[in-house]
């Protein structure tokens, strides 16, 4: 259990049990649309969990029929109000606003622990931006994915067009972005966007929690190293990535976790690993 208090959140419900943090989007009546509070709460929550070292894996799901309808109209309304004043200063303000929105999902990549997303129903617009920043994606048979921004007269700007080409073929990304069409769960599985498709939400959550439990059983140091290396490799050459791996290993490869893993195997018990150190705030 963690001492963190998430009771005052407006858009999320958070529980932490057995090293697994479960973050639920909790506005089902509004299709879990991403109101202004969501963009503040999500990065704050995941960074607090990481900073406190209170979990070894995060599972994000949602309540209701749909995972998320994406960015709420209120956010667009606020953006519309900013289109006033001297053009250069107005543009600079808009750029900062977009960067702040992007940072909400950058947090999912930047934290040390894996993020798994379990989706049902519509995964629309900003929701695609969000799940593209997760480590692993799972969905139910009724799920569908839409880059909705194009149909709204704008270009998706919070990560979909930057991350999705690393997950599925370029031609398919372009088709989805240019047309704004729905991609069904079966197609998402075939192209590699999601790892598995499940018959319903309950079955999916049970299976994803089992995967999370398996991750949480491993050395948090080893898992954090995997995430760091995989993210770095995505954005760098093989040679640069191998060099970084060697440098990382020179400092991070120590024997206690290896010895514990070997001892647990010999004694036929679950290994017990020390948590990662808490992070210093604002670092």
From TrEMBL:
<comment type="pathway">
    <text>Lipid metabolism; fatty acid beta-oxidation.</text>
</comment>
<protein>
    <submittedName>
        <fullName>Enoyl-CoA hydratase</fullName>
    </submittedName>
</protein>
<keyword id="KW-0443">Lipid metabolism</keyword>
<dbReference type="Pfam" id="PF00378">
    <property type="entry name" value="ECH_1"/>
</dbReference>
<comment type="similarity">
    <text>Belongs to the enoyl-CoA hydratase/isomerase family.</text>
</comment>
<dbReference type="InterPro" id="IPR014748">
    <property type="entry name" value="Enoyl-CoA_hydra_C"/>
</dbReference>
<dbReference type="GO" id="GO:0006635">
    <property type="term" value="P:fatty acid beta-oxidation"/>
</dbReference>
<keyword id="KW-0007">Acetylation</keyword>
<dbReference type="GO" id="GO:0005737">
    <property type="term" value="C:cytoplasm"/>
</dbReference>
<dbReference type="InterPro" id="IPR001753">
    <property type="entry name" value="Enoyl-CoA_hydra/iso"/>
</dbReference>
<dbReference type="GO" id="GO:0016853">
    <property type="term" value="F:isomerase activity"/>
</dbReference>
<keyword id="KW-0413">Isomerase</keyword>
<dbReference type="InterPro" id="IPR029045">
    <property type="entry name" value="ClpP/crotonase-like_dom_sf"/>
</dbReference>
<keyword id="KW-0276">Fatty acid metabolism</keyword>
<dbReference type="InterPro" id="IPR045002">
    <property type="entry name" value="Ech1-like"/>
</dbReference>
<keyword id="KW-0576">Peroxisome</keyword>
């Amino acid at each position: 259990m963690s001492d963190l208090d998430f009771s005052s959140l407006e858009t999320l419900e958070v529980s932490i049990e057995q090293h697994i943090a479960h973050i639920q989007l909790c506005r089902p009546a509004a299709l879990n649309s991403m109101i202004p509070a969501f963009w503040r709460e999500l990065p704050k929550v995941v960074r607090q969990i990481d900073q406190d070292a209170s979990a070894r894996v995060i599972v994000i799901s949602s309540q209701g029929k749909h995972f998320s309808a994406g960015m709420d109209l209120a956010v667009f309304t606020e953006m519309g109000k900013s289109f006033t004043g001297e053009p250069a200063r107005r543009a600079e303000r808009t750029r900062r606003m977009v960067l702040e929105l992007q940072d909400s999902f950058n947090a999912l990549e930047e934290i040390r622990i894996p993020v798994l997303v379990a989706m049902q129903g519509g995964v629309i617009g900003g929701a695609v931006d969000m799940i593209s920043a997760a480590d692993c994606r799972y969905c139910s048979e009724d799920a569908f994915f839409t880059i909705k921004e194009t149909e709204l007269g704008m270009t998706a700007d919070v990560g979909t067009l930057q991350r999705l080409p690393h997950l599925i073929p370029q031609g398919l990304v372009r088709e989805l972005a240019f047309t704004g069409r729905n991609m069904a769960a079966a197609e998402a599985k075939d192209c590699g966007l999601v790892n598995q498709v499940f018959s319903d939400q309950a079955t999916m959550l049970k299976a994803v929690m089992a995967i999370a439990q398996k991750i949480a059983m491993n050395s948090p140091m080893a898992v954090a190293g995997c995430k760091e290396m995989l993210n770095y490799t995505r954005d760098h050459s093989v040679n640069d990535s191998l060099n970084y791996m060697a440098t990382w290993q020179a400092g991070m490869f120590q024997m206690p976790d290896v010895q514990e893993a070997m001892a647990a195997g010999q004694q036929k018990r679950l290994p017990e690993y020390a948590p990662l150190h808490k992070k210093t705030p604002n670092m």
